[in-house]
What does this fold into?
Amino acid sequence: MTEPGERIDLIRQAFQQELEAVDSPRELEEVRVRYLGRKGKLTELIKVIPTLSAEEKRDFGRRANQLKQELTKQFAHKQNQLQGSEQPAPALLDVTQPGARPHIGHAHLITQTLDAINAIFARMGFEIAYGPEVELEYYNFDALGIASDHPDRDPFDTFYLKDDVLLRSHTSPVQIRVMASRQPPIRIVAPGRVYRPDTVDASHSFMFHQVEGLLVDEGVSFADLKAVLVMFAHEFYGPEVKTRFRPSFFPFTEPSADMDIFCRLCQGKGCPACKGQGWVEVLGAGMVDPVVFKAVGYDSEKYTGFAFGMGVERLAMLRYGVTDIRLFFENDLRFVNQF
Amino acid sequence: MKTTYNWLCEYVPELVTIPVEELAHSLMMAGLAVESVTPVGEDFVLDMEITSNRGDLQGMLGIAREVRALTGFAMKLPESEYDTSGKPVEEWTSVEVLTPKLCPRYTARLIADVKVGPSPSWLASRLEALGFRSVNNVVDITNLVMLETGQPLHAFDLAKLAEAKIIVRRATSREAITLIDGTIQELTRQDLVIADAQGSVAIAGVMGGLASEVSSSTSVILLESARFSPPHIRRTSRRLAVGSESSYRFERGIDPEGVDRASRRATRLLSELAGGKPAPGVINVNFEKPRSRKIRLRAKRIGTLLGIKVALPDAIRMLEALDFSIVRETRRSATFLVPSFRPDVTREVDLIEEVARVYGYDKIPTSTSIGLNLAAENKVDVVEKKLRERLRAAGLSEVVTYSLVDERAAGLVSCWSDSPALALSNPTSEDNKFLRKSQIPSLLKVAKTNQDRGVETVSIFEMGAAYLPQPDARQPEERKLLTLLSDRSDGFYYLKGVIEELLAGIGLESLLAFTPDAQPFLLSHSSARVGLDGEVLGWLGCISSNIGKELDLASLLAVAELDLGLLIDKARLYPSYAPLPRYPSSSRDIAVVLDESVLYKDIVSVVQGLGIAELQEIECFDIYRGKQVPAGKKSLAFRLTFRSPERTLTGREVDDFTERIVKQLENELGAQLRRL
It folds into this structure.
C-alpha cells in the first residue's frame, strides 16, 4: 500500500492529467464526480485519516485539505474556460435594416402657419385677440366705415344668417371690439376663420383664415407701418426678401397700401406663381381711417394707428408651394403629414 | 460689515428719532444691503453687505456719512485730540520703508507708560456685539478704531522690536514667522512684512507676529497706521490662506487721508483708557502725492440718463451731503472735488449714480418713453399648444374642416345642443348651408375620404368650434371643441388612453371619470360620457353601425368630442414638484377571476377602500377571456406596487397586504384568485 502522503501526490497528478483532457461539459462532470464527488477519490482519502497516528493525522489532514482546495480551484478554472468557449458568437446586426419608427402625428399646415405668423408679431409685443365668427353687421361693416348702402359693400359679399347676423368676412370686427373695450395703446393681431361666398376653386375657398393686426398709439405713422411689415416679411420670408408698397384701397384705412414681395421663383421675370407680375401680393394695410376711431370713441387728433391683414392659406401656399387651396380642407393625410 | 444702531447714533445723534427698521430700509434703498437686524440687549446689530467698490463703508463713520446724506441730520466726529509728553517719537523709534510701491504710506506713533489690562465694559460689550473677542484694552482699542474708521491699526510692543525700529520690506525666501494665532507661516519674496532689525514681526496688512504682540507686560506701544497695495495684500492673504479684518479692509482700498486721523483717534483712546502717554509727533513715511480729482456734472445729463428732472441746486445739495465739495458752478453744470475716500468716483456718470442713490431709486418713475409693452399671453393659446403637442406625440394628425356642413351632417350629432342647426340664408351650396353643432360629422367625412383613397391609418383631431343656437341671443354660442377620431382596431381604448394622457399633461387626470352613456350616434355597448370634476367634458365611443352603413365606412371608427373651453379653463399649467421616493418599492402580481359585469373602477375602489397607505399603484397588465376562464367571467392580472416613505418594507408585510387585498376582492366582488 502506498504511503498516505504519496497518495495525495498521485491523486493530484492524475486529476490534473484528466482535467486537461476534458473537452466537454459532460467529461468535466465525470471528472468532478470521480474526484470531488461524494464517492470520489478525495473523500476516499479522508477515510484514511482514522488509521493514522495523532501526529500523522495532523500533517495528513493539512495536506489533504490543501489538495481539496487546489483541485476545486483548478476545476473551477477549467469550468470557466469551457463555458467561455461554449458560448455562440452573437449574431451580427443588420444595421441597414429600417429602424422601428415611432408614428408621430402632424399639426395642420394652417395651424403651423398661424403659429409662425403670430409668433413673429408676439416678439414685437403684439397680443393675440379673438372674437366671434358669427358677427353682427355693425362690427363687420358699419364700425369700419362701410355704410349699408355704400358701394364699397359689394366687394364684401357676405354670408348671412338672418337679419343683421352674418358670418364675418374678415377679422377686422375683432379689432373694433378690442378698441371699443379699452384705450390706446393697442397692439394686437387677430387671427381666425373668415367666410366669403366665393366660388370654390384652386385659389378660392368660401372659408379661410386671416390674420389682421392693429397698432394704435400716439405718434404712429405710415413709416412705422412699413417698418413693422418689412420686419415681418424678413422674418417670415427670409432676410433677403425684397418688398414694395403700392397704393390701394380699403374703406377703413387711409392711406391704404398693398405689400408685395419679389417673386423668388422667377426672380421677377414673371411666372404663374406671381401671375406674370414678378411680384406677389401678400398683404393689405393702411393707416386707420378717422371714421373708425370715431366709432370706437378715440380722439383721432391724439391717436393714429395702422392696420394690416393677410390670408393665411395664401401665405402658406406661397411659402410651401401648395398649388390648390382645397387641399387644406380635404385633409388627405398624405397632405397633412407632409409638413 | 456690522454696525450697531446705538453706535451710529453716537455719530449722528438725531438718528435716535428714526426707528431702526426705518433706518435699515433707507440704507437698503441707498445701496447698503442690510441683511439682518438683530436685537442685542438694548441695541440692534445691523449686518450689511457692502459692495466691493465702497471701501469707505468698511468703517462706521462711512456709514454715518451715508446716513447724514439720506436724513439731513448733522454728524458728530469722534474726538481725536490728545496731550503729548516726553521725548519726540523720532527719539524712540525709526521707520524704514524699502518698498514704496507696496507700502505707499506708513505712520507710527509712540505711546509710553501704557497699562495693559481689561477694557472698560462699554468697550468690551461694543466689540462683542459685533463678534469681536475682547483681548485687552490696547488690542481692543485698535479694533474699535478700525471698526470706526475702516483703517486697520496694529500695536507693537516696542520693547520686543529689535533695535526699536520698523523696516517695511519684502520677506526673504523661506523666512518664517509665528503669527498671533499661533501658526507658523513660511513666506516668500512676494510677501510684504513688517520687520525689526532681526526679522519679520508681522505680515503687513494681514496679521501680526506673536513675538511682538502686546501683552500684560507691555508698556511702550508703537502704533502702526499704514496703507498697503491692495493686490499684494490679497495675493498674500490668499496664498497663505490667512485672512483678517485688516486684510479684508486693505484689499478694498483705504482712504489715504484717513491713515493719520485713525492713528490720532487711537492714540487719544490709548491715553484716555490705558493710561498711555503719547510722544509728540508722528513718523510719517509718505510716498503718495495728494490727489485731487475734479469732475464736472451737467444737470441735463442727469435727466437723460435717469429719466428724472433734477435741478442743479438739488443735485449740488445731494452731493455735498456726501462730502463732494463744489469748486465751480455755472447755470447748467457744477464741478466737484472728489473726497479722498471715494476712489470709486472718477467720472460724471459716477456722480449721477450718487445723485440717483440719494434721490431714491423708488422715486424714479416706472414708465417708458420708448414704447415698450408686455404683450399678454392668452391661456387659450398656451393650453392649445400643449394639447396639440401631446396629440401629435400620441400619433394623431390635425385636420381643419369646414364650419359649414350639409343638412344631414348638421343633424347627426346633437349631444351639445338639440336645437336645429343655424342655416345661412344665402349659402353658395347645399353642402355648406348649416353651421355645425359638432365636429364629428366633419371628421367622419375626412376619415371616409382617406379610407377611399387607401390611406392606411386614420387617427386625427381637430381643435375648432361648434355653433350652438341660443334662443335668447342673436349670435350663437361658439363652443370650442376638441374632436378625436381613430380607425385603429383598438380605437376605443386608444382614444381613451389619449384623453387620459392629454389631461395628465394639464394636471387634470385625477378629475376624469368615464361613465357608460348611450348617445344616438354611438354604439350603445361602447359609449361613455366623459366627466371632469362632475361637469360634462364630452363623449367617447364607437360610431353607430347605422351611421357606418349610411356613410359606407370601411371600418369601425372610434370618436371622442370634448369641450375644449372647459379644458382650457380648468387646465393647470404648473405642476408642483413631488419629492422622489427614498425607499424601494416591492410588488406582487395577482390574477383574479371576476364577473364580466364588474367594472374596473369598482375593483380599484374596493382595493383602495382597504386604506392601505403603502399601496402605491395598481396596474392591470392583462385581461384574459378564454378557455381557462368560465363563460361570463374575465380574468384580470394586476401588479400591486407597495412602498413606504419611511423605510423598506419587509417581504412579510407586502405578502400580508396582498393577502388582505385578495380577501377583500373575494368578499366584496366574489373574485376568485387564479393561480398563474
Summary: Chain B is about 30% helix and 25% strand. Chain B touches chain A through 51 residues (CB under 8 Å). The radius of gyration of chain B is 43 Å.
